[in-house]
Amino acid sequence: RDLALLATMVVGSGMLAHLLMNWSLHRIPVWVGSSTTLLIPGASAGLAWIFLGERMVWPQAVGMAVTIIALTGIVIENNQRRLA
């Protein structure tokens, strides 16, 4: 049973997610794909904290906040350049 669950997780979230990400890169701006990829660790930690009760220490929260602030700055700068 455990091996079947592991195989499902590898195929479902591993291979399928990578396939969809690679497929999308032809259809979205590169900065969207890279920014989304950079948000994954913070989003995973936050969701694990909310839904699974995982412990989160303050350096993790600070790191996630810095990442989100930096990515927000990148998106705003990209939009301003495009509009200028």
Mean pLDDT: 86
Summarize the main sheet: none
Q: Spans with pLDDT under 50 lasting ≥5 residues?
A: none
Silhouette:
flat
Helix and strand content put the structural class at: mainly alpha
Instruction: Bin the helical content.
Output: over 70%
SSE order: HHH
How large a portion of the residues is in β-strands, by DSSP E? under 5%
Rg of Cα set: 16 Å
Count all strands and give the number: 0
User: What is the rounded distance between the termini?
Assistant: 57 Å
**Count of helix runs:** 3
Q: Quick summary of this structure?
A:
The protein has helices at residues 2-24, 30-51, 58-83. The protein is mainly alpha-helical. Helix 2 runs antiparallel to helix 3.
Describe this protein's structure.
This protein is mainly α and 84 residues long. It is built from 3 helices and no strands. Helix 2 (30-51) runs antiparallel to helix 3 (58-83). The longest helix is centred in the last third of the chain and has 26 residues, at 58-83. The chain starts with a helix and ends with a helix.
List its salient traits.
3 helices; 84 residues; 85% helix; mainly alpha
Topology:
Blueprint (H helix, E strand, L loop, with lengths): L1 H23 L5 H22 L6 H26 L1
Helix pairs in contact: 2-3
